[in-house]
Design goal:
The protein is mostly helical. The protein contains 2 helices and no strands. It is flat.
């Protein structure tokens, strides 16, 4: 329960920080978007790689 509250506070403060900085600097917003895009691609690639290489039991 406490970890959820801490996580929610961190996310809320992070969004506030990014909004304040991004309004002044569009490059920061583009950088954050690019980093999130790369992270999503890495997650998808890892999931596909795991699915293709895992061993399946014989029937």
């Amino acid at each position: 329960m406490i970890y959820k509250l801490i996580g929610m506070a961190v996310v809320k403060l992070g969004w506030m920080f990014l909004r304040r900085k991004a309004s002044n600097n569009r490059g920061l917003l583009a950088g954050v978007g690019a980093a999130m895009g790369l992270a999503i691609l890495a997650i998808i690639g890892g999931t596909v790689g795991y699915a293709l290489t895992r061993e399946t039991p014989e029937a």
